[in-house]
């Protein structure tokens, strides 16, 4: 059980991470299709290298990497 203060802090961190990813993606030109991004994220969600938002193997935010057409999984899963 976590305290209410910790829960709010974690929620803010989630919002900050999502906002940072969205901001960076807005500056990118070569986006993957929504379907391709979703397939990639599904593979990431089943991967033991996923740690919340990041890949333990390369340290990237997986939603950011999966959203760009020319990026690849560092483990070759997509």
UniProtKB/TrEMBL annotation:
Q: Which InterPro entries match?
A: DUF6171
The name of this protein is Uncharacterized protein
Q: Which organism is it from?
A: Trichococcus shcherbakoviae subsp. psychrophilus
């Amino acid at each position: 059980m976590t305290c209410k203060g910790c829960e709010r802090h974690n929620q803010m961190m989630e919002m900050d991470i999502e906002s940072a990813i969205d901001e960076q993606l807005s500056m990118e030109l070569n986006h993957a299709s929504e379907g391709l991004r979703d397939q990639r994220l599904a593979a990431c969600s089943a991967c033991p290298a996923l740690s919340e938002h990041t890949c333990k193997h390369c340290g990237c935010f997986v939603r950011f990497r999966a959203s760009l057409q020319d990026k690849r999984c560092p483990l070759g899963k997509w």
